[in-house]
Amino acid sequence: MNKKIIISICAVVVIVGVALYFTLSKPKVQNVNYQLYVVKTTTISNSVTATGTVEPIKQVDVGTQVSGIISKIYVDYNSIVHAGQLIAELDRSVLETDLSASKANLNSAKTEYEYQVKNFERNKGLYAKELISATDYESAEYQYLKANYSYEQAKANIQKAEKNIGYTRIYSPIDGVVMSRAVDEGQTVAAGFSTPTLFSIANDLKKMQVIADVDEADIGKVVEGQKVTFEVDAYPDDIFEGKVVQVRLLATTTSNVVTYEVVIDAPNPDLKLKPGLTANVTILTLNKENVLAVPVRALRFIPGNYIGSIPKKCVWGQDTQGKVFPIEIKTGATDGIYTEIITGLNKGDKIIVGTKTALQIGSDTTNSETSNPFMPKHAISGDNKRTK
Questions:
Q1: Assign residue 226 a region: left if phi > 0, alpha if psi is -120 to 50, beta otherwise?
Q2: Distance between alpha carbon 131 and the CA centroid of its chain, in Å?
Q3: For the segment 79-105, what is each residue's pLDDT rounded down to a tens digit?
Q4: Which of 238, 276, 277, 281 is nearest to 263 (CA)?
């Protein structure tokens, strides 16, 4: 009897031991709550910011080629002028005196020339008959050539004096607006080594440009044709639009900062933009609309309990049983928040972007992004600024 009891107890102990072994040795399944994201289309954009100055597309400094006293001024600041319009005159009395003197010199040179022509022809005939020496003939020829050169110089001086008188009338070279007037009537101007500037005339102010200084770290992203928006302090509620028309190659170094000039076309139909205004420029270097994209953090997520090979570039999905699996993808452009997906995913697919926090468990966090007051928003809506 005692033997049967002992055998029964041993059997029970063996059964319990086996059951405990299989129970304890079975791997525990860790239940992880993942935050999912539904793949959708969005707009990916990047931009470069810079500061520039509003300038006319064409501006001409009008000067004078002759010295003299300003006798008449016919335009003032902001005057509208046309090409060929008389805008100022210099006193002509001194130049007219020079012209009279040049005419007198011309008459004297002409008389001398005509005399030397006759004298040379006479000596030439005598020399042919061997009635004068070669020295006398050469002297007559020399006097003739000298008189000829003096006569030609006198005629050139006449033309110069006449042109100088013409230069006393100053005309506008282009259609435009007078931006500045540097002289007054009665003021003396001297045309020496450099031409003095009398007026600055800007062409059509309805067509302006912005010269922006772009940092060397960003200049590689800027190309001609890119869309540009900019603001000026004079109109804080307006956003003006333009486009890049030129990226200049000459670098400018200021306080060890290297910048390049970018020319931006800036239409100005209502004449709000004035030369010299400072513009805060935003150059749209990347703009892709309706592209399939996922948050950048989805590319950085790696589950800790996955065993197996992982593709070089992938995101993670989850099946109906809660198991995670990698999805190999090919990516395109990125704006730092979203990354374009070229292949590997379709619109509507669900991927893992992270794990849920204790507060998120039990709530729907699909396509929700963690709020961070220091991170810029991906899309801004409801902007009440008016675009020009």
A1: beta
A2: 83
A3: 999 999 999 999 999 999 999 999 999
A4: 281
